[in-house]
Amino acid sequence: MTTATTVRLATICCVLCLSGGSTFAQECPDQTQTGLNQCAAESYAKADEGLNRAYKRIVQKLKGQDQAAGLFVKAQKSWIAFRDSECAFVSSGASGGSIYPMIYSMCLEQVTKDRVKQLQNYLKCEEGDLSCPVPPG
Questions:
Q1: Which of 40, 59, 24, 21 is nearest to 104 (CA)?
Q2: Rounded to two decimals, what is the model's pTM?
Q3: Tell me, what DSSP letter sits at residue 110?
Q4: Class of the 3-122 domain?
Q5: Residue 113: CA atoms inside 13 Å, Cβ hemisphere, count?
Q6: 73-84 pLDDT, tens per residue?
Q7: Residue 28 · residue 39 · CB < 8 Å
Q8: Packing angle, helices 66-90 and 100-122, rounded to 10
Q9: Could you give the dihedral angle defined by the CA atoms of residues 89, 25, 44 and 94, in that order, rounded to the nearest 10 degrees?
């Protein structure tokens, strides 16, 4: 293993620990790399379900507002492209390794959770707030 590879793996481990990766690993019943990869994929799937719920609620609130709805769909498609590219970049240091799927899934989960928070904020718009794109109620 080269020094650069060792430094990359050490950096990845630090990122995982700081982002809750150590808690994640402790909660996974199968401590093999395959098991950890599967747990990470399942955690991301749960975050994605939350994203889909928030997305559907916003689309419902934007019924009859074709321009705003179109802009929202366009923004979401752009965000998905960003998410996938960002996580490909973040996990690139582990490319080709058995830990890659876990790191990629953990990135997808975190970025998705951040987006869910953003969408949930849109759902909390108050009457008269022109800076908020989603109607209240």
A1: 40
A2: 0.79
A3: H
A4: mainly alpha
A5: 11
A6: 999 999 999 999
A7: yes
A8: 150
A9: 20
